[in-house]
Design brief:
Elements lengths: L4 H16 L10 H12 L3 H11 L5 H11 L5 H11 L2 H8 L4 H14 L18
Helix pairs in contact: 1-2, 1-3, 1-4, 5-7, 6-7
C-alpha cells in the first residue's frame, strides 16, 4: 500500500544520502551515484516524498536537503519548505528561496523578509539552486 512507513523511511534515507553526496557548491561528489539517486527521488510518489522530506529536515544536513529539494522541484515539498523558512531559516535561506525561480518560494521569501524589515537581493541563477533543475 502506498504511504507505508517503510516507503517513507526509504525515501527519507535516499534524500539524506543524496544530500550527503552534494559538495558545498551543490554539485555531485559521485556523479553517477548522485544522478541515480536524484532520478529515483524525482520519480517518487508525491505524498511519500512530502512526508520523507519533512522527516529528513530533522537531520543535521537539513540545509543541504533543502538545496537538493529545490533541485528536485517536487511541489509536494513547498509548504514544508515555507514552514522551514519561518521556523528555522534566516536571511541566507530566504535569499536562496528568492533566487530559485519558483514563484511560490519567491513569494514566501519576499513575505518573510518584509515581515522582518530585511531587503533581499534577487540574483537568479548565480550560485543558487534552481527549482527543478540540476
Amino acid at each position: 500500500m502506498s504511504g507505508e512507513p517503510t516507503e517513507i523511511i526509504a525515501t527519507q534515507t535516499l534524500l539524506i544520502n543524496s544530500a550527503a553526496n552534494l559538495s558545498i557548491h551543490g554539485n555531485w561528489i559521485d556523479e553517477r551515484l548522485g544522478r541515480e539517486m536524484f532520478d529515483r527521488l524525482r520519480e517518487a510518489d508525491a505524498h511519500i516524498y512530502a512526508q520523507a522530506f519533512r522527516r529528513a529536515l530533522s537531520h543535521p544536513l537539513w540545509r543541504t536537503v533543502l538545496t537538493l529539494a529545490i533541485k528536485i522541484g517536487q511541489d509536494s515539498a513547498l509548504d514544508t519548505m515555507a514552514g522551514t523558512l519561518y521556523e528555522r531559516g534566516g536571511k541566507e535561506l530566504a535569499e536562496m528561496y528568492l533566487n530559485t525561480g519558483c514563484p511560490y518560494l519567491v513569494r514566501c521569501a519576499s513575505d518573510w523578509a518584509a515581515a522582518r524589515g530585511y531587503v533581499l537581493i534577487q540574483r537568479s541563477g548565480r550560485g543558487f539552486p534552481q527549482w527543478g533543475l540540476f
